[in-house]
Specification:
The protein is mainly beta. The chain has one domain: Sandwich (Jelly Rolls), CATH 2.60.120.10. It has 2 helices and 25 strands. The strands form 6 sheets. Strands 1, 13, 14, 17, 19, 20, 21 and 23 form an 8-stranded antiparallel sheet that branches. Strand 24 and strand 25 form a beta hairpin. The longest helix is centred in the C-terminal third of the chain and has 13 residues. It is globular, with a radius of gyration of 18 Å. The structure holds manganese (II) ion. The site of manganese (II) ion has 6 residues, from strand 5 and strand 10.
């Protein structure tokens, strides 16, 4: 019999400040065995420019990947490799910081709704010092698959034999944007041993077989191990991110935007940043 994953824990995202004074909601932001290899998920949805216009001026990253998915609005990106571009509504930037990048991420729109997500994925020790790389994915390159009663945007991973554009990522992640119609059910296999969570964007749904509580916007659902998730709806639809990956199970030393395995590696990273030797690869 197929083992349906049970809910380990449900949380509500919490308001916090980041960058140069960006007000956002943090779904999680810590090293947790059931979220490994993921470290952080920020939801930057706001229709008040005062909440987001300060943006994220130049800052370093090392040892992780940052995955930015913009639902509404535009984010301008510039970095130490000389890259420059705009992440627009529906686009994804999958950035592997590896041995180090210095970049800025600034909102362009100065009125109306700005909404998106930034996910941080850890890298295993053997990949932390890989050269940085980018996967810039345009909205039109993200396949949308219709399955019984649901539609799924596949950023990374596979649904019904259709693969998303982001491939060959170290932690074998899956990143799906799923919408389930009212009174419908969505079942999806996730490799046993991989960790998985869902984050609700709109509407409400049941995130396990028990169907005891309808979960809604800004709920984070962390799952137990198993083979499949089964998510269903009552009279409303539900839209959520469904994200999974292979846990790294290594020590985590984390300070701000830099995540390594030891305190010594963190100290060295900040020393290099001060001395101007942080960036190892400029393309
Ligand atoms: Mn950043």
């Amino acid at each position: 019999m197929t083992e349906i994953r049970k809910i380990h824990k449900v949380r509500q995202s919490r308001s916090t400040m980041e960058g140069a004074g960006v007000k956002l909601k943090r779904a999680f932001g810590e090293d947790h065995p059931k979220l490994d290899p993921f470290l952080l998920l920020d939801d930057f949805g706001s229709d008040n420019p005062d909440d987001y216009m300060a943006g994220f001026p130049f800052h370093p990253h090392r040892g992780i990947e940052t995955i930015t998915y913009v639902l509404e609005g535009e984010v301008q990106h510039k970095d130490s490799m000389g890259n420059e571009g705009i992440i627009s509504s529906g686009d994804v930037q999958w950035m592997t910081a590896g041995n180090g990048i210095i970049h800025e991420e600034m909102p362009i729109r100065s009125e109306g709704l700005m909404w998106g997500f930034q996910l941080w994925a850890n890298l295993p020790a053997k990949n932390k010092m890989m050269n940085p790389r980018y996967r810039d994915v345009k909205k039109e390159d993200i396949p949308e698959v219709e399955v019984d009663g649901a539609k799924v945007k596949i950023i990374c991973g596979e649904v019904n034999g259709i693969k998303g554009p982001v491939q060959d990522i170290v932690t074998d992640p899956e990143y799906l944007d799923v919408t389930i119609n009212p009174n419908s059910e969505f079942v999806h296999s996730i490799k046993k041993g991989h960790n998985v969570f869902a984050y609700v964007i709109q509407g409400e749904g049941y995130f396990d077989e028990e169907k005891e509580i309808l979960l809604n916007k800004e709920n984070l659902i962390i799952y137990e191990d198993g083979e499949e998730v089964k998510i269903s709806t009552a009279d409303s639809s539900v839209r959520f991110l469904l994200i999974s990956g292979k846990p790294i199970k290594e020590p985590v030393a984390w300070y701000g935007p830099i995540v390594m395995n030891t305190k010594e590696e963190i100290r060295l990273a900040f020393e290099e940043y001060r001395e101007g030797t942080f960036v190892k690869y400029t393309g």
